[in-house]
């Protein structure tokens, strides 16, 4: 794929942050329709108005992806009203910081797993049959995190949810190839901290700058079009992943914790205002 021109693109967490940027990119490339899913009605309406472009249908849907029924109902409406997406960007996510024993089981642990891990699976399951039956190429971009590649204090549940996304997403890629459905490409994005507001207060580890969302979206979009299996940003994420596999655990803890400062990166985390909502992207 060289672009999404003439295609239906669905973006979750589309009202702000990187989700809004993915929507902008789809419009610029001349998508047939851009379907926007978010839980924030006001921000969703504002983004839909901002993206309004002659020749491109903008279809906003108010969806709570933490609820499976909300996902299935919205997916049914999208298929009936717009069509089955050829491009799915599972971007929506939330973050909870703090020691695991201080998390509320329902508000923190369960909600994080539902939004970050279960929802992308359920959303993909809704639209994959149509993608598989399609004659042309389709793409799925699953937004994971560098937190899914290395352990980090004060983000245990978030890390667990992103580890789940990475394992599922790349397994799905292999299953599609093995079953002869290679025209459906799956890309897993695992970035470090991005300046969207979601990780306000977090400190980038040594040699790992907090990245601009526009930079990440540019790289992720190109990787998705090319059906690149993995994109880890910046390069230090790949380095950390390799060292984690090569070094004895105590040696890696020293390198990651004492030298690179990974284990202290969430010490001053504050997060975006009103972080307790699954609308964040």
Task: Chart the SSEs and their pairings.
Blueprint: E1 8-12, H1 17-28, E2 33-38, H2 41-51, E3 57-62, H3 68-81, E4 87-90, H4 105-133, E5 138-143, H5 156-178, E6 184-191, H6 213-225, E7 230-233, H7 235-246, H8 249-259
Parallel strand pairs: 1-2, 1-4, 2-3, 4-5, 5-6, 6-7
Structural notes for this entry:
This protein has 281 residues and is of the alpha/beta class. The chain has one domain (8-264): Rossmann fold (3-Layer(aba) Sandwich), CATH 3.40.50. It is built from 8 helices and 7 strands; from the N terminus they run βαβαβαβαβαβαβαα. The chain has a 7-stranded parallel beta sheet, with helices on both faces. Helix 6 (213-225) links the parallel strand 6 and strand 7. It starts with 7 loop residues before the first strand and ends in a 22-residue tail after the last helix. Mean pLDDT is 93; it is low at 274-281.
Record keyword descriptors for this entry:
alpha/beta; seven-stranded parallel sheet; 14% strand; oxidoreductase activity, acting on the CH-OH group of donors, NAD or NADP as acceptor; oxidoreductase; NAD(P)-bd_dom_sf; Sc_DH/Rdtase_CS
């Amino acid at each position: 794929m060289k672009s999404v021109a003439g295609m239906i693109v669905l973006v979750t967490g589309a009202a702000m942050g990187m989700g809004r940027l993915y929507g902008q990119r789809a419009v610029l490339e001349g998508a047939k329709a851009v379907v926007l899913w978010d839980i924030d009605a006001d921000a969703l309406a504002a983004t839909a108005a901002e993206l309004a472009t002659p020749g491109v249908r903008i279809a906003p849907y108010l969806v709570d992806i933490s609820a499976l029924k909300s996902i299935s109902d919205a997916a049914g409406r999208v298929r009936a009203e717009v069509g089955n997406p050829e491009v799915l960007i599972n971007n929506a996510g939330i973050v909870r910081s703090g020691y695991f024993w201080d998390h509320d089981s329902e508000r923190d642990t369960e909600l994080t797993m539902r939004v970050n891990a279960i929802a992308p699976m359920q959303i993909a399951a809704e639209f994959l049959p149509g993608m598989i039956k399609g004659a042309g190429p389709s793409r799925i971009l699953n937004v994971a995190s560098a937190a899914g590649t290395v352990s980090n204090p004060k983000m245990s549940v978030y890390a667990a949810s992103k580890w789940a996304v990475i394992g599922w997403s790349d397994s799905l890629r292999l299953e599609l190839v093995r079953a002869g459905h290679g025209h459906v490409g799956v890309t897993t994005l695992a970035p470090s901290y991005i300046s969207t507001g979601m990780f306000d207060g977090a400190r980038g580890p040594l040699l790992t700058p907090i990245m601009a969302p526009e930079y990440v979206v540019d790289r992720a979009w190109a990787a998705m079009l090319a059906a690149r299996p993995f994109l880890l940003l910046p390069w230090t994420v790949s380095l950390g992943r390799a060292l984690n596999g090569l070094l004895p655990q105590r040696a890696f803890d020293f390198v990651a914790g004492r030298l690179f400062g990974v284990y202290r990166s969430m010490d001053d985390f504050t997060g975006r205002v009103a972080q307790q909502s699954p609308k964040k992207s």
